[in-house]
Write a structure and sequence with these properties.
This protein is an alpha/beta fold and about 400 residues long. It folds into two domains: about 200 residues, 3-Layer(aba) Sandwich (Rossmann fold), CATH 3.40.50.2300; about 100 residues, Response regulator (Rossmann fold, 3-Layer(aba) Sandwich). It is built from 14 helices and 15 strands. The strands form four sheets. Strands 2-1-3-4-5 form a five-stranded parallel sheet, sandwiched between helices. A hairpin with a 5-residue loop joins β12 and β13. α3 runs parallel beside α4 and α5 runs parallel beside α6. The N and C termini lie far apart (about 50 Å).
Length: about 400
C-alpha cells in the first residue's frame, strides 16, 4: 500500500510541471501576433458602404488600441475583395486561417458571403465579427454563437423603425423592390412582418439582380401597384440608383420611397434635394455627439468621406476583440469569445452594447429623417434624429430566436 502511494505521488509530481506548461502554452498568443482579416467589397456595389473605408477603420482601431494599452504582442491586418461571391470569400478566409495565421475576420459585407464564411470560421474554430452583412439568418437558422458575432445591424432592426412609423402616418400599402439574394429576401420578409403586424398590407413586389444596371422596369411595376410606399430592400449602389431612378420617373410625386438599408454614404451620393424627408434606421451618425464627431473627423481626414455605420461598427468590433485578447492574454477562440460576451461595449459606436447568447450584439439604433437642403448647416449634416430605439426594442427578442444553439 505504501509503495503504491509513493508511486502515485512521484507520478503526480512529474505531471504537474507538464500540465502547467501545457496550460501556459494554451494561454499564449499564437506566434505573438494577432492577425485580423478585413473581408469586404472593394470594387462592387457595396464598395463605398464598406470597402477601403473598413480597412481605414481597422487601422484606426489598431492604432488607438496600441496607444491606450501598449500591448506586448504584434497586431497585423490583411484585407481582400470578396467580389460579392460566396465561393471567393469563403476560399480566401480558408486560406487566411490555414496559411496566414488570421485569428479574426470582420466586415464580411454581403449576407451570402457572410453565411459561407461563418461555416468556414466555425469549421476552423476561429472568430468572425460580422459588421456588414444584414440577414437575420446569421443569428437564427445559421447561427454559430461560439464563433460568430453579428455586430452592427440586421434586417429585423432595419425594418423595425421606419415601417411602423410610416403606417401610423397613413402610409399603409407597400410594394417591395428587393435585391435577389439572402440579404434582400431577409429584409423583405422582416419588413413584411412589421407591415402586417401594424395593420398594413403588401400589394406586391419585384426582385432585381445584385448591381442591377437598369431599374426602369422594376419601378414601372412599383408605380402600377399604386402602393403608398415603395420599399427598397437593397443597399449600396443599388439603393442609390433606385432612388435616383424613382425621382427621374416622377414616382416620388405620388408614392413615398423608403430605403430600408440606407446610410449617409447613399444620401451624400444622391443629395438632399432628392432624399429630403426619407426615414430609415441607422446604427451610427457622425454628428450625434462630441465623441462621434471627434472620431468621424479623424476618419474623414484619412478617407475623405464621413463614416457609414459599417465603418464605425468595424472599428468598434476590432477594438472589442483586441480588448478581450489583451485582458485574457490569449487568442484562444473560446476564451476570447467568453470575455467579449462578459464585457459591456462602450465606444464611439455603442454605449452599453452587449453580445447575447445567440451571437447578436445589441445596442441602440436611431430612426432618422433626412433634412431639407435649407436645414443642413455644413457638409454631411444630413439627419434629424427622430427617435432613439433602445437596444432591446431594436433587435429581435430572444423569445423569437430560431438559433438551434440557444436553449429555450
Amino acid at each position: 500500500m505504501m509503495k503504491r502511494k509513493l508511486l502515485a505521488l512521484a507520478l503526480s509530481t512529474m505531471l504537474v510541471p507538464v500540465a502547467g506548461t501545457a496550460l501556459a502554452q494554451a494561454g499564449k498568443i499564437s506566434g505573438d501576433v494577432v492577425k485580423i482579416g478585413v473581408l469586404t467589397d472593394m470594387s462592387g456595389v457595396y464598395a463605398d458602404l464598406g470597402g477601403k473605408g473598413s480597412v481605414v477603420a481597422a487601422e484606426m482601431a489598431i492604432e488607438d488600441f496600441k496607444a491606450q494599452f501598449k500591448p506586448k504582442f504584434k497586431i497585423e491586418v490583411v484585407s481582400a475583395d470578396h467580389q460579392n461571391k460566396a465561393d471567393v470569400g469563403s476560399n480566401k478566409v480558408r486560406e487566411w486561417y490555414d496559411t496566414q495565421g488570421v485569428d479574426m475576420v470582420t466586415d464580411v459585407l454581403n449576407s451570402g458571403v457572410a453565411i459561407a464564411v461563418a461555416k468556414v470560421t466555425t469549421e476552423k474554430n476561429k472568430i468572425m465579427i460580422n459588421a456588414g452583412a444584414a440577414s437575420t439568418r446569421l443569428t437564427n437558422e445559421d447561427c454559430a454563437p461560439k464563433n460568430v458575432v453579428h455586430y452592427v445591424y440586421d434586417t429585423y432592426a432595419l425594418a423595425n423603425g421606419p415601417v411602423s412609423v410610416m403606417i401610423k402616418q397613413g402610409k399603409d400599402s407597400w410594394f417591395f423592390l428587393t435585391a435577389d439574394y439572402a440579404f434582400g429576401h431577409s429584409l423583405e420578409k422582416d419588413a413584411t412582418a412589421v407591415v402586417l403586424a401594424n395593420g398594413g398590407k403588401v400589394l406586391g413586389g419585384v426582385r432585381h439582380p445584385l448591381n442591377a444596371s437598369d431599374f426602369s422596369s422594376f419601378l414601372l411595376q412599383a408605380q402600377a401597384s399604386k402602393a403608398k410606399v415603395v420599399a427598397l430592400a437593397n443597399a449600396g449602389g443599388d439603393t442609390i440608383n433606385s432612388i435616383k431612378a424613382a425621382n427621374e420617373f416622377g414616382l416620388t410625386k405620388n408614392q413615398s420611397v423608403v430605403g430600408l438599408l440606407t446610410t449617409i454614404i447613399d444620401i451624400h451620393a444622391v443629395g438632399l434635394q432628392a432624399t429630403q424627408g426619407m426615414m430609415f434606421t441607422e446604427g451610427f451618425y457622425w454628428n450625434l455627439n462630441s465623441e462621434t464627431r471627434d472620431w468621424s473627423r479623424r476618419f474623414f481626414s484619412k478617407h475623405k468621406k464621413m463614416p457609414s455605420m459599417l465603418h464605425a461598427g468595424a472599428y468598434s468590433a476590432i477594438t472589442t476583440y483586441l480588448k478581450a485578447v489583451h485582458a485574457t492574454g490569449t487568442d484562444d477562440t473560446a476564451t476570447v469569445m467568453k470575455k467579449m460576451r462578459e464585457t459591456p461595449i462602450n465606444d464611439a459606436f455603442a454605449k452599453g452594447g452587449r453580445i447575447r447568447e445567440d451571437g447578436r450584439m445589441v445596442h441602440d439604433m436611431y430612426l432618422v429623417e433626412v433634412k431639407k437642403p435649407g436645414e443642413s448647416k455644413e457638409p454631411w449634416d444630413y439627419y434629424n434624429i427622430k427617435k432613439v430605439i433602445p437596444a432591446e426594442e431594436a433587435f429581435q427578442p430572444m423569445a423569437l430566436s430560431r438559433c438551434p444553439a440557444v436553449k429555450k
